[in-house]
């Protein structure tokens, strides 16, 4: 009797399982995005940044590397990935850049997806099947050819004109605003929409402060000493590196965007407003 | 492009993320999670009842140890426990070479100090392998005199939905709350009669000590009957800076003869994603057929809609896992999982086959 009951139940299970099925994919590209929406990855993987973003970073890496809690602060969604990869020191292996333009062998990202040597932690994608050798070869080729942003590489004049018409602004920050992360924190990355005028970057225009009970209150301590530099091969991205590890607390990064000497691009267009980014460093457990 | 972010869920890997919770056992027995676990919301260390249950009710054969029966207690105040999972697995992604390996999936140890027996405990759940030590849960828990409410504070698994063994289930991945994502905060629990409820406030994804409203709120409430149960769950991750992410779920359990059914459906509204946010939905239906003592067949069907505004993008996953518990504290799990998505996405067509050795105490 018990078996009959189970068999009847199993039959119901089968019917239910048969009812659940995958989508037909009609009208979608291989990332599941409507083709009419533009973008997407309907094209095969090619050695340019947009193609790698559409075929690898977005569909595979953003399973984990997204949002304020992205591992190692590395967000690989389209809005952040280039700025946080090219010319940015690795958190796990500080002597290596995540992507060193022109040098795939010494790019930490390449080592991570190849599974070594000298990597910290596991091969990426973590826990999933490794990327195919063909895919890795295409990414290596993109790095070897200078790790350019696709559009800039393909149509520099048109894109440059378009870029100049847009306001100079911050496009990405890592750690993400509002993030709470464990010490140590070795760097803060700020990406801009245009190439930065390096002469506008100095301790009076880029200020890192520890703040107290409210991030809106004036800092009670002197500014944190930092080293300021542009990312290697990625002049739209600013690296802010504290000279000493940050202890636990809440920090505010201020970019002066108004007045004389404000942070500006190569056309002397400034941010237009002061920008504030607040994040919290927790004591390591 | 916001739709592409939904693909974070489309390539859900098929590997096992081991854990300890088995809510189907609660449905089969009619118990609440707190009947067998130190943690009132389930998972992790088993209490004395759970240890005895694991020795007498789970295995096909009980090896008699005479008067020396393991119940986790080193003395009247200190108890320990642990779980080890070792796996041989093969994984195949369409148009990619198959990958197979042996893997120590997880080794975890638990420590409970009942500093005031039955009333106040300090509890730690530490993952010791693979890699370096990783703290999962550490909290203090105060029980009321008749155990109908409690307060827990520290680092804890958030209360939301079915605390499944498979942390990669669509419903757990889509919501983003599982046993790999503990948070620091306070939880209040109410367990009285047929009711089992929890409310937690924690730091959340982006909550910091100075962000006044950047916290995460989790709520679940279950109505528990001997052969069925029904629950609702909600989670609001309120990042003051990057936006809100809300998850809302309905879950249930039903016992029909030897089969324990589990079901859960969730809807996620993620406004932290650029360009208008992302809305997704996931569902799970699982049957656990207790073929005989020590033999359980688990069949699971799952469905994911990574972006509910897009048609024809559903992803399905089917799992069949045979669980054999030959003797107390030892389990063998033989399983297959198949992921099936839209035809043009290779990454949505995967198969995983695994044999797992699970030792626990």
Could you describe the 3D structure shown?
The complex is a heterodimer of chains A (285) and B (361). Chain A is an alpha+beta fold and 285 residues long. In chain A, 23% of the residues lie in helices and 17% in strands. Chain A has 7 helices and 8 strands, in the order H-H-H-H-H-H-H-E-E-E-E-E-E-E-E. A 4-stranded antiparallel β-sheet of chain A has the order 1-3-6-5, with no helix packed on it. Chain A has a 4-stranded mixed β-sheet with strand order 2-8-7-4, with no helix packed on it. In chain A, a hairpin with a 2-residue loop joins strand 5 (226-231) and strand 6 (234-242). The termini of chain A are far apart. The model of chain A is unreliable at 37-41 and 152-161 (pLDDT under 50). Chain B is mainly beta and 361 residues long. Chain B has 4 helices and 16 strands. Chain B has a 16-stranded antiparallel beta barrel with strand order 1-2-3-4-5-6-7-8-9-10-11-12-13-14-15-16. In chain B, strand 1 and strand 2 form a beta hairpin. At the A-B interface, helix 1 and strand 8 of A face helix 1, strand 12, strand 13 and strand 14 of B.
Annotate the secondary structure layout.
The complex is a heterodimer of chains A (285) and B (361).
Chain A: H1 2-19, H2 49-57, H3 81-85, H4 108-114, H5 133-144, H6 150-154, H7 156-165, E1 170-174, E2 180-182, E3 188-192, E4 206-211, E5 226-231, E6 234-242, E7 249-255, E8 275-282
Parallel strand pairs in A: 2-8
Antiparallel strand pairs in A: 1-3, 3-6, 4-7, 5-6, 7-8
Chain B: H1 2-5, H2 23-29, H3 48-56, E1 78-93, E2 99-116, E3 120-129, E4 134-143, E5 149-156, H4 170-175, E6 183-192, E7 195-202, E8 216-224, E9 228-239, E10 243-256, E11 259-270, E12 278-292, E13 295-305, E14 315-327, E15 330-340, E16 349-360
Antiparallel strand pairs in B: 1-2, 1-16, 2-3, 3-4, 4-5, 5-6, 6-7, 7-8, 8-9, 9-10, 10-11, 11-12, 12-13, 13-14, 14-15, 15-16
């Amino acid at each position: 009797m018990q078996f009959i009951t189970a068999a009847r139940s199993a039959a119901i299970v089968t019917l239910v399982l048969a009812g659940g099925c995958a989508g037909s994919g009609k009208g979608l590209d291989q990332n599941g995005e409507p083709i009419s929406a533009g973008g997407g990855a309907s094209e095969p993987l090619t050695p340019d940044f947009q193609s790698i973003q559409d075929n690898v970073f977005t569909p595979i890496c953003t399973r984990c590397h997204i949002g304020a809690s992205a591992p190692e602060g590395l967000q690989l969604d389209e809005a952040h990935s280039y700025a946080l990869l090219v010319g940015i020191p690795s958190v796990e292996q500080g002597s290596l850049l995540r992507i060193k333009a022109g040098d795939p062998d010494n790019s930490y990202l390449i080592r991570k997806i190849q599974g070594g040597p000298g990597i910290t932690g596991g091969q990426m994608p973590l826990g999933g099947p490794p990327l195919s050798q063909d895919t890795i070869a295409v990414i290596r080729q993109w790095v070897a050819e200078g790790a350019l942003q696709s559009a800039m590489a393909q149509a520099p004049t048109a894109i440059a004109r378009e870029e100049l018409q847009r306001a100079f602004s911050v496009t990405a920050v890592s750690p993400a605003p509002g993030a709470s992360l464990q010490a140590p924190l070795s760097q803060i990355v700020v990406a801009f929409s245009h190439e930065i005028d390096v002469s506008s970057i100095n301790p009076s225009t880029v200020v890192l402060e520890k703040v107290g009970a409210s991030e809106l209150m004036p800092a009670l301590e002197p500014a944190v000493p930092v080293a300021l530099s542009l990312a290697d091969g990625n002049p739209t991205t600013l690296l802010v590196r504290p000279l000493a590890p940050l202890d636990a607390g809440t920090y505010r990064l201020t970019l002066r965007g108004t007045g004389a000497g404000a942070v500006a691009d190569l056309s002397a267009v400034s941010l237009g407003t002061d920008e504030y980014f607040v994040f919290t460093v927790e004591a390591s457990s | 492009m916001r739709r592409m972010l939904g693909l974070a869920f489309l390539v859900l890997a098929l590997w096992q993320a081991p854990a300890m919770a088995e809510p189907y056992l609660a449905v089969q027995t009619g118990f609440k999670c707190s009947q067998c676990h130190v943690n009132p919301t389930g998972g992790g260390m088993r209490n004395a009842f759970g240890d005895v249950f694991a020795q007498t009710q789970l295995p096909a054969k009980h090896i008699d140890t005479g008067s020396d029966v393991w119940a986790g207690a080193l003395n009247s105040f200190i108890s320990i426990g642990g779980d080890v999972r070792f796996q041989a697995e093969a994984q195949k992604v369409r148009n990619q070479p198959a990958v197979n390996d042996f893997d120590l999936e997880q080794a975890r140890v638990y420590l409970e100090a009942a500093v005031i027996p039955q009333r106040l405990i300090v509890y730690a759940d530490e993952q010791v392998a693979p890699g370096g030590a990783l703290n999962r849960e550490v909290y203090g828990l105060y029980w009321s005199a008749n155990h109908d409410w409690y307060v827990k504070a520290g680092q804890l698994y958030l209360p939301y939905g079915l605390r499944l063994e498979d942390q990669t289930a669509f419903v757990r991945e889509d919501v983003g709350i599982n046993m790999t994502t503990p948070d620091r905060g306070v939880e209040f629990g109410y367990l009285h009669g047929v009711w089992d409820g929890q409310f937690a406030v924690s730091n959340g994804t982006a909550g910091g000590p100075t962000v006044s409203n950047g916290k995460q709120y989790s709520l679940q409430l279950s109505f528990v009957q001997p052969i069925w149960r029904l629950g609702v769950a909600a989670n609001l991750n309120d990042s003051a800076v990057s936006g809100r992410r809300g998850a809302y779920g309905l879950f249930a359990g039903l016992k029909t003869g030897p089969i324990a059914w589990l079901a859960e459906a969730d809807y996620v509204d993620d406004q932290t994603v650029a360009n208008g946010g992302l809305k997704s939905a996931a569902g799970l239906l699982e049957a656990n057929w207790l073929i005989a003592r020590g033999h359980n067949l688990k069949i699971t069907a799952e469905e994911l809609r990574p972006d509910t505004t897009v048609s024809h993008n559903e992803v399905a996953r089917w799992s069949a896992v045979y669980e054999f518990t030959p003797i107390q504290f030892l389990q063998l799990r033989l399983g297959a999982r198949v992921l099936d998505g839209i035809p043009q996405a290779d990454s949505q067509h995967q198969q995983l086959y695994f044999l797992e050795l699970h030792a626990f105490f």
